[in-house]
Write a structure and sequence with these properties.
This protein is mostly helical. It has one domain. The longest helix is centred in the N-terminal third of the chain and has 25 residues. The chain is flat and about 55 Å long. It starts with 10 loop residues before the first helix and ends in an 8-residue tail after the last helix.
Length: 185
């Protein structure tokens, strides 16, 4: 997908590689702390350097999502800006400041009248965010979006999610089931 705001050509493969490199950082970090061997520390340092310096991306391009013109277009409900924001959230890249950037997009999307197709995509994004093993500083903004995109059926989907026995994942699901995040009927 190419828009006036962002060119998503080749994006899925690049995001997959970025996220794979981040997973490697997490795995080597765990090993580094468990063994405290110099070679494991070196593997972790190498993984961090590869993640930080991932050259296939041009991360500076992502800062369009913090650009005042883009945010104003999104706040104004411009269709192409909405589509661009939703697509970015679907890919869910993880890099320095990505959570803050996603938060800004979610806050603006919360106030818009979305098409049914966009709501459906956003419900999948929220479901994936609940189950994501990665930290999500922007998670409350995903939950706040439920007033705009939530349905009784989707609430049931959240309630029935097979959440692994990990405290923060259970807390995310519980958070999304709080009445405060749903339209009162």
């Amino acid at each position: 997908m190419t828009s006036v705001w962002f060119d998503f050509t080749g994006f899925p493969g690049k995001v997959a590689e970025l996220n794979r490199l981040h997973k490697l950082v997490c795995e080597t970090s765990e090993l580094r702390w468990r063994t405290r061997k110099a070679e494991d520390v070196a593997h972790w340092e190498d993984a961090v350097a590869r993640w930080k310096n991932f050259s296939g991306f041009g991360l500076e391009k992502f800062y369009i999502f913090e650009n005042n013109r883009f945010l104003a277009a999104l706040s104004g409900g411009e269709a192409e800006a909405r589509a661009c924001a939703v697509t970015f959230l679907e890919f869910d890249p993880y890099y320095y400041r990505s959570g803050y950037m996603k938060s800004k997009l979610l806050v603006r999307l919360k106030h818009l009248t979305l098409r049914e197709s966009e709501k459906k995509r956003m419900r999948k994004i929220v479901r994936d965010a609940i189950l994501s093993p990665r930290p999500k500083c922007e998670f409350k903004d995903y939950a706040r979006l439920l007033k705009n995109i939530g349905t009784p059926e989707f609430r049931q989907v959240i309630r029935n999610l097979p959440v692994p026995d990990v405290p923060y994942l259970s807390a995310r699901r519980s958070c999304c089931l709080l009445d405060v995040y749903w339209k009162s009927s």
